[in-house]
UniProtKB/TrEMBL annotation:
Gene3D superfamilies: 3.40.47.10. Keywords: Phosphopantetheine, Phosphoprotein. The keyword Phosphoprotein applies. This is Ketosynthase family 3 (KS3) domain-containing protein. It comes from Pyrodinium bahamense.
Amino acid sequence: MISDRCRTFSEDAAGYGRGEGCGAVVLALEPRVVHAELLGANTNNDGRTTSPITKPNGPSQERCMRAAWGQLLPECNFVEPHGTGTHVGDPVEAGGIARILGSRATGRALPLPVIGGIKTNLNHLESAAGMAGLIKVLLLQERAVASPFGAGHWQGEHSSFP
């Protein structure tokens, strides 16, 4: 579904809102100033599942997140999810984040980290969406603040967050 705004994890999420943008970061082996250190990354593909492309595969997303976070789970205090603002995709992604980070692989419940959502500010930037999220996280880390959602409250009945 196409919407005028992306309302990630919101009760009034109405679907995908398209935006335009681009971004770049410079990676260096020995930079003069270190802004961030990338400690984990992963990617996967749902190409072989029976789910349509518009419905993400929860177990596949969880495997991808676990592989990316690795041993860093107990230290995670901020998550910038994909968060497209759809009633199908958001609950799958939120549920995976809650299951993984709620236990932090320790077997005991811990509070969820701060959840971001750059698409509520910019809409979905297509191939630049991941870069927008990365740049946002770098700026938040540098300034030691968490930014609010641009389209309202993220916690809705369909969000799957506790």
